[in-house]
Amino acid sequence: MLDNAAKANWQALSRTDPTLTLPDAIRDSIRDRLKRLPQAEREALDWMAVYGRHIDFSTLQTISDQLQMTLLNTVEQLAARQLLVETTGQYDFIHHKIREVVYYDLSTARRGLYHRQIAETLDTLVPSPDQTALLAHHFEYGGENEKAFTYWMLAGKHALAAYAHQQAARHYERALALTDKPAAQIDAYLGIGNAFMLLDDYKAATTVIRQGLELVEHHDDDARRSRLLYAQAQNASRQHRSDGGKPEVEAALIAAEQAGDEYYLAQSLLLLTEVHESSGDLSSALETATRAQIVSNKLNDNQLEARALVEIGFLHGQRAEFNDAVNAAELGLNLLAETDDQNAIAYAWNILGRALGGRGDYSRALDAFQRSQEQAQIVGDRYLLAQALNMRGWLYRELGDYENSLKLDEEGVDFAQQWGKPSPEISARLNVCLDVLHLGDPGRALALLNNIKTQINAGSFGFHSWRWRLRLLHTRGMCLLASDEPSKALSLAEEGVSLAETSVILKYVALNHELRGLALAKLGRVDEAIGATKTAISLADDIHFQPVRWASRHQLAELYRQNDCEQEAKNSSSEAEHIIQAIATSLEDESLRVTFLNAALHH
């Protein structure tokens, strides 16, 4: 974030206005004090009033071109007169009203001269990124609009990097107001659009980006067209539309190819990956993500390659290829360690947590989600903040801590609804249904699911509807089974197997075969139940999906007993207990270990 001195100076400069609005009595009282000052003291105040606030002695001496001892005596005298205050080596007006009167009483010519001299002096000192807004302001008020434009653009870029998105929008807007050059205007429109996008103001971002596109159409500038079309695609994608923003993404991809811009080609390929994800075509998504990684590696762009790797990790995780998912996410995190992209780091920890949790490495998964949440708080990423809650809720549920799982998931729903994040909302709401089911209330869980089903069918949750339908089928089947309706549960399980196999979501193939086995057992079709349960176990072993591995073995043991196959039942129970003990041993939290063992014992 911007440091405190930079914030204070920007706030002071934002109030700088030649129109003085102080009551006459206060204004006259301040002027009366100022009239009695020696010339040297008044000149020092003039320079400080134009500069802003929080100025150190060295900077004041440089811009006012005063002898060191003379200026020191002057500022010490002003402090003694209670016009200035010194704090940690910096001087400031004791009250901003004094500064406003001093600034207002300067002639227009002198104000402009001082602003220009301050800007030119600071410009020679190799300013830090935090000073770019300060220089932009002084160049603007000094009449140097071209230099002011350059520094407002730099200030906007710095504010975006510091996650000060509202300030970034203001900086870019100031830049736009100072130029009549089409290329510069397009760059400013792009900056404003990116700032609005990060503020989740997608409507405003759409308007601004379109203004830039209208301008670029009148000029032969393929590079800027490519950037604007990518921004438009990114804005569409962030809204989680049911089509994933496909038309905008395809337009951005074509523009990047025409411009020969491999950076935006890679960026557009990552957005196309999300389009494929939205439709459930994970094979195509993996192909485009891999292509994006190859292009970014060729560019030697660690940040972009890391994003591609993390997306590859997400896709492997969705396909239940958990070891591949962990490897890709860890490679991405290693590359991101060399960057300052806190957003990408937060997302990478989230994806690593999913992959670790998928293969049953619960302690490391919880740590990964905690790191993701901490990073998301730093950058103010509401999507990940809402999602981190239901991700942790998912892990607690798998470990049998249903009360804490419900608490986290309900909190996740509240935050997602409050912040308008549909994807974390639907995920958390489905989790709540499972929590309620495990706490023994299948009727309430079914009622909640009916409402969710209506909203999914209406497209209320935008992209990834295939994921929500898959989860809805399985959760509804579990609730019907608990409500003693095994025939309906069996039908939903078979539908779930078909849908999961189509999208190659092996986790849900295994879960639905497990549900088939449970439903068939309740229907008295024991031999068929044994076959379905064995299939679930085989799939779960292949992908190392722990919940099905131990729970289905317990179910298989019970089915063997019904067929008087005692040795097979004993072997299956022993295997289940071995898996349970291995999981318990890996848990670092003692209370979670006890909770898990108790839940597994009473399964």
CATH superfamily of the domain at 490-603: Tetratricopeptide repeat domain
Span between termini? 49 Å
Task: Work out the helix count.
Answer: 31
User: Which fold name fills CATH's third level, the topology of the domain at 490-603?
Assistant: Serine Threonine Protein Phosphatase 5, Tetratricopeptide repeat
Mind telling me the C-alpha Rg?
Answer: 31 Å
CATH architecture annotation of the domain at 490-603: Alpha Horseshoe
Q: pLDDT below 50 for ≥5 consecutive residues: which ranges?
A: 1-8
Percentage of residues assigned to helices? over 70%
What class would the helix/strand composition place it in?
mainly alpha
Overall pLDDT, averaged?
91
Largest sheet: 3 strands, antiparallel
| CATH class placement of the domain at 490-603 | Mainly Alpha
Number of strands: 3
Short description:
This protein has 603 residues and is mainly alpha-helical. It has helices spanning 4-15, 24-35, 39-51, 57-64, 68-80, 96-105, 108-123, 132-141, 145-161, 165-177, 182-198, 202-216, 222-238, 246-259, 262-279, 282-298, 302-318, 322-336, 342-358, 362-379, 382-398, 402-419, 422-438, 442-457, 465-482, 486-502, 506-522, 526-543, 546-562, 566-586, 590-601, and strands at 55-56, 84-87, 90-93. Among the domains are: 1-106, Orthogonal Bundle (Arc Repressor Mutant, subunit A); 490-603, Serine Threonine Protein Phosphatase 5, Tetratricopeptide repeat (Alpha Horseshoe), CATH 1.25.40.
